[in-house]
Amino acid sequence: MNAFTYAAFFEEIDKNTSIEVYRKIFDKNVQFKDPFHDIIGVDKLYKIFEDMYIKLDNPSFKVTEIVEQNNIAYLKWNFHFSFKGSNKDESFVGVSRVEFNKEGKVISHIDYWDSASNLYEKIPILSFFMKFIKSKINS
């Protein structure tokens, strides 16, 4: 597998993608890290995505840039979704650093994105506090 194949996987996954598909893509001891998770194991990774499809409506990724060298790739992506019960479409940009093993499976996937402005500020109760904190920092 290479970064382009991996990007296609992320653009095509949905709530019906089985654990068996994840096991073909990811090493059994894959490390996954983002602002909310730091786990090891393909089964735990699958659970994160399973939960995402329960908590959000229509989550999807669109990869817009790929940089690959040897067994390391960086993917810039847009994540589109809406919160359950909301008709408002949301999106934000992130970057993933992905490492492949010699067999072509993903052994590390680390996401970089701003959870404060991309999520916390969009949740009504938290948005007030986040904007207040930002105003104090910026003054």
TrEMBL record:
Matches recorded under SUPFAM superfamilies: NTF2-like (SSF54427)
Gene3D superfamilies for this protein: 3.10.450.50
InterPro entries linked: NTF2-like_dom_sf, SnoaL-like
Membrane-spanning segments: none
Domain SnoaL-like: 8-109
Superkingdom of the organism of origin: Bacteria
Protein name: DUF2358 domain-containing protein
Origin species: Poseidonibacter ostreae
Upper classification of the organism: Bacteria, Pseudomonadati, Campylobacterota, Epsilonproteobacteria, Campylobacterales
